[in-house]
Amino acid sequence: MNLLYHESEDWVDRAACHSVDPEVFFPVSPDGPGAMDVRRAKAVCGRCRVSAECLDWALRAGEADGVWGGTTPEERRYLRRDLLRAG
Ligand code: SF4
């Protein structure tokens, strides 16, 4: 499960990643062999009922590693930048 440190969040119980190897969500690199893990993680997030809550949490927490809410760290950096620009 990808949410070891966020068990106080009630949406965590409905996470689709409960039964998935956490290493899939935290590849060493998003390139090379890690790209397959990123695709696998995003596929799990794509069928997760709480992906919006997860992404919101990751953005608010400034989570710098791993796939959360179907986004990579780089994608979240762009999202945060866009949100800041939008005010
Ligand atoms: S969106 Fe992805 S990382 Fe977040 S709870 Fe769902 S499956 Fe886990």
UniProtKB/TrEMBL annotation:
Keyword DNA-binding set for record: yes
InterPro entries membership: 4FE4S_WBL, Whib
Record note on cofactor: Binds 1 [4Fe-4S] cluster per subunit. Following nitrosylation of the [4Fe-4S] cluster binds 1 [4Fe-8(NO)] cluster per subunit.
4Fe-4S Wbl-type domain ranges (all copies): 16-78
Superkingdom of origin organism: Bacteria
One GO CC term, this protein: cytoplasm
UniProt KW keywords: 4Fe-4S, Cytoplasm, Disulfide bond, DNA-binding, Iron, Iron-sulfur, Metal-binding, Transcription, Transcription regulation
Homology family: Belongs to the WhiB family.
The protein, known as: Transcriptional regulator WhiB
Species of provenance: Allonocardiopsis opalescens
